[in-house]
Request: fold
Amino acid sequence: MFRKSIIVLTSFVFMGAHAQVSVFNPAVTAHGVNYILPKTELQVKVSAIKTIFVPGEYARYADRYLRLSEARTEAESSWKITSVSASTFGQPDTLKRYTVKAKDKNLLPKVQLTKSGLMMAINTNVDSEPEAIKTEPDRATNHRLDYRNYYNEEMLSATSSSKLAELMAQEILDIRDSKNQIKRAQVEAMPKDGASFKICLDALDQQEEALLQAFLGYTDTVFCTRVYDVIPDKDIEKDVLFRFSKKLGYVDTDDLAGEPVYLNITDKHTVTLPTEKEAAKRKLTGLVYNVPSMADVHIWSDSSDYLKSEIPFAQFGTVDVLGPTTFGHEVTTKVTFDTATGGVKVIE
Reply:
């Protein structure tokens, strides 16, 4: 879904008071500009591949007519996780609502907010609003070739499976012989140029592959992704993020058919939090922003280690302010914010 950012042209000074509104309304109000700071949402994207083997209709004749003893006769499917990645996205924190209040003595030319009211930039533009990761549609590959398209008159007249399998096997051997003769320039009507030569061999290769599928079967693949969202308010230790089965793929967290994949989020306390007494005395006069704390994120199962990363989280940190003088008449300060954490990315 397209998220349109809000750009507000103002002549306001930042005040650190919570917005006194019963329903939060970002952008311009009678009091100034409302904005909100985010909580950090962890988004875990899991990619997996499903492999589906379909046996050949005439697999039982593969060894007899083509000496292919490896032909499988049973259908099989299996799943495998191919990658696990983590990113962050900002969700509005209803306890951190503030207002940019009007005042004549300072000048703030421009405030850019997200559609949900998160601060994006001051006195500069951010080209596009970050979007949450969405689960992608499954993508399937189809490797099945219809060998019936290559039946000759004799095959169409076959009265038994055994006879038809024998005729298809003989056709495969004839195709191989024809390809060898073309490569050795032993045919009467040789292709006239390199392009024609390639077209001729490619056609024979496709015909051979299709007929071989009647004996050896084929394998299709399905690429599947899932996105798991977590907004931690405290450390998380060995929570089941999802379960995964090599036979069934993604299953519910309470489905014991799948192996649990665990999540740890551990605050590293990289930010010193104010005491209750200090917080009570603190005056947030200015632009309030988040100072996130780093946390260790670990995703693993008993059989695999999928991801270890250090990620900032707004809710583990504290808040700070950019004072009103930062945006005075004589100063054009440009600030870009990280909408996932509410922290300052660039200030100039």
